[in-house]
Task: inverse folding
């Protein structure tokens, strides 16, 4: 009886322990977490123009200082500082009375010299006649020949003085030497100018077109020359008679506050040699600048881009997808088994927020563009595909603008509805 009771108790304990062990086993079973979600996109394939990028400085097409070329009192001013003037427009007047008097004196000297010439010519003819008739000495002929030469020289001198006086009178009317924007007056009216030096009165700057100067290093220059040679050979241009800038290579420029390179011009000038001190050559682009007010001013910092060549079927991915470590630049790519792979790449230029991938990527590769932090090489992920073209800077900007417009429209509709409800 006692033994049977003990057996029943032992069976109960075993059953309880079995139930407890079974419950603990169920609660500690490992459940694998779902794979992290990432966004992937296949590269964009397009024709890409390879560019060279430089920094430069804008410079005026023409700049002229307007000096006082004669001495005198500044009498009047005939322009508004900061406005546009045309070549030949009157700017200043210097008191001309002194030079008008000098012109009158020179004209009087000319008249007197011509009278002396007439007298000498008449007396010379008379002396020759008398000498032939043996009625006068030969010395009279010599005398009047000398007088005639002196009179003719005096005439030339008087004529020169007249020209000088007329020129000085012309210089008292200070005109614009070029078209452009005139600066402020450097001398106030009533001051003596041109006294021993060419006093600066004002300056004129021509803004259209506008130059941009930049420097190219020797290695890059050699690359450009190779492309240039191919261009002139392809277009059947006589290379013996043209130089680099005569190929009319396009040049693009952007200012410090501008995105991209919105200004288009051409390569207009190149120095004749590389500077051995710096190892660079100076180039110059020329750009239209007809806006009012002009978009370009002299002395501005400029970003310059020159197209080098064009390559077809290049792969581009968003710059946000690229990462870098000690091994260099790389992309994370999801393979057919949804497993992440690390692809070392060689990146090229940036175009509208997309990077040109020179090496390390294939056409159909699914590149991780969002959720890079959650993707680890070798791990499995849950990819969601998007179009790479939607990740360009311009596409993102358009999307943001559309979202903002929709939000404004929604807020406006809500406000109207609320106002209508209050009126009711």
Result:
């Amino acid at each position: 009886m006692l033994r049977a009771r003990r057996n029943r108790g032992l069976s109960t304990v075993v059953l309880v322990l079995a139930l407890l062990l079974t419950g603990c086993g169920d609660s500690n079973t490992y459940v694998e977490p779902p794979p992290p979600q990432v966004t992937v996109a296949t590269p964009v394939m397009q024709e890409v123009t390879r560019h060279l990028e430089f920094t430069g400085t804008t410079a005026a097409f023409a700049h002229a200082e307007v000096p006082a070329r004669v001495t005198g009192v500044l009498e009047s001013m005939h322009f508004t500082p900061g406005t546009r003037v045309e070549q030949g427009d009157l700017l200043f007047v210097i008191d001309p009375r002194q030079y008008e008097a000098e012109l009158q004196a020179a004209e009087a000297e000319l008249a007197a010299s011509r009278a002396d010439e007439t007298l000498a010519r008449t007396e010379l003819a008379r002396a020759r006649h008398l000498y032939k008739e043996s009625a006068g000495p030969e010395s009279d002929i010599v005398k009047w020949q000398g007088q005639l030469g002196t009179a003719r020289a005096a005439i030339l001198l008087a004529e020169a003085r007249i020209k000088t006086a007329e020129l000085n009178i012309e210089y008292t009317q200070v005109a614009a030497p070029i078209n452009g924007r005139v600066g402020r007056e450097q001398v106030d009216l009533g001051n003596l100018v041109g006294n021993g030096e060419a006093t600066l009165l004002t300056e004129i700057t021509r803004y259209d077109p506008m130059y941009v100067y930049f420097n190219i290093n020797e290695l890059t220059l050699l690359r450009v020359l190779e492309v240039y040679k191919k261009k002139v050979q392809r277009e059947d241009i006589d290379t013996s008679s043209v130089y680099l800038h005569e190929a009319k290579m396009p040049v693009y420029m952007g200012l410090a506050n501008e995105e991209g390179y919105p200004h288009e011009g051409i390569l207009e000038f190149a120095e004749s040699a590389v500077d051995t001190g710096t190892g660079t050559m100076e180039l110059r682009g020329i750009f239209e600048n007809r806006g009012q007010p002009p978009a370009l001013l002299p002395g501005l910092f400029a970003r310059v881009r020159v197209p080098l060549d064009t390559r077809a079927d290049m792969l581009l991915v968003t710059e946000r997808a690229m990462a870098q470590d000690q091994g260099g630049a790389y992309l994370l790519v999801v393979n057919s088994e949804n497993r992440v792979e690390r692809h070392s790449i060689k990146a090229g230029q940036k175009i509208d927020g997309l990077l040109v991938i020179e090496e390390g990527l294939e056409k159909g590769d699914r590149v991780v563009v969002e959720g890079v932090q959650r993707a680890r090489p070798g791990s499995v992920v849950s990819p969601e595909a998007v179009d790479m073209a939607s990740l360009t800077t311009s596409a993102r900007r358009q999307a943001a603008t559309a979202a903002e417009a929709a939000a404004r429209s929604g807020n406006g509709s809500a406000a109207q509805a609320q106002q209508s409800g209050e009126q009711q």
Notes: The longest strand covers residues 44-67.
